[in-house]
Write a structure and sequence with these properties.
Bound molecules: 2-keto-D-gluconic acid
CATH architecture of the largest domain: 3-Layer(aba) Sandwich
Number of domains: 2
Radius of gyration: 22 Å
CATH superfamily of the largest domain: NAD(P)-binding Rossmann-like Domain
Strand order of the largest sheet: 8-7-6-9-10-11-12
Helix content: 25-40%
Distance between the termini: 36 Å
Shape: elongated
Number of helices: 13
CATH topology of the largest domain: Rossmann fold
Order of helices and strands: EHEHEHEHEHHEHEHEHEHEHEHEH
Amino acid sequence: MSTSNPKPRILISRGVFPEVVQRLETYFEVEPNPTDTVWTKAELIDRLRDKDGAFTTGTDRIDAEVLAACPKLKICANMAVGFNNFDVAAMDAAGVVGTNTPDVLTETTADFGFALLMATARRIAESEHYLRAGRWERWSFDMFAGSDIHGATLGILGMGRIGQGIAKRGAHGFGMKVIYHNRSRLDAASESACKATYVSKQELLQIADHLVLVLPYSAESHHAIGAAELALMKPTATLVNIARGGIVDDAALAAALRQGQIAAAGLDVFEGEPKVHPDLLTVPNVVLTPHIASSSVPTRLAMAQLAADNLVEFFGKHKVLTPVTALPSGVSR
Ligand code: 8YV
């Protein structure tokens, strides 16, 4: 008869790379989700109530109700850099550790932000739909004439790691003038590495030719871009959101696009996704992608492995690598 302690029990809330599931199975008793079903809160609670830890994604809301129903739970390792699916105050109160996956997705996500900016400003998606629909019959001087990226003014709202990645691509690769607004100003060395100038939010909206949103979602950033902000932007401007749905008021954006208040938008995230505001689906000058900014194969694998690392370190060494909550006594980083 074995006298060793039972393995900690872990829930993996969504489908994930088989090698990551196998790795976790060497340390833990694992309940995976091989069908990648999106569980309701009740279904999540049912599976989580006897678990010591969870491998979560941005689609799993961990709040006071979940925590109260799952008293054994000690850690939720999110496979995402954003953690607005965590009620951090409730997790702190319950002594449950939360972790995220920063750094490993920075460059991939910045690449995507730039790709979406270029597709939007140069009207790539719109023109492709036109071609596929068999409507291309002749050349014309202004066919899908968009706006330039090189030499234009790139505005960035939210200058964290990903924002800085986009700024560097713009400044060094495309000769753009970079302006940004953030809750706190960067230090001089970081500003110089990005060739970025700090401006007020109002100046950012008024001056940017292309505005990229890369700020975290919170009560404070809810509808940071609404009708009033869109009204300040140039009629030739493009807006790109790779941050979170809810930062932009999607209904106000659809109206602004339809009225030509701004030229175009590129959106990877939506309020209430995977539902998309119906008005956005019918305006032509918007490029829509299904929340894939971090989705390169190597990066998604690195994110999953970092979430797994946090679980392995926590239960094996009472450590976590990338916490986003307070750490209970006895747990270090
Ligand atoms: C994730 C993201 O794919 O990391 C984030 O914050 O938005 C994406 O990279 C998504 O949240 C799934 O967890």
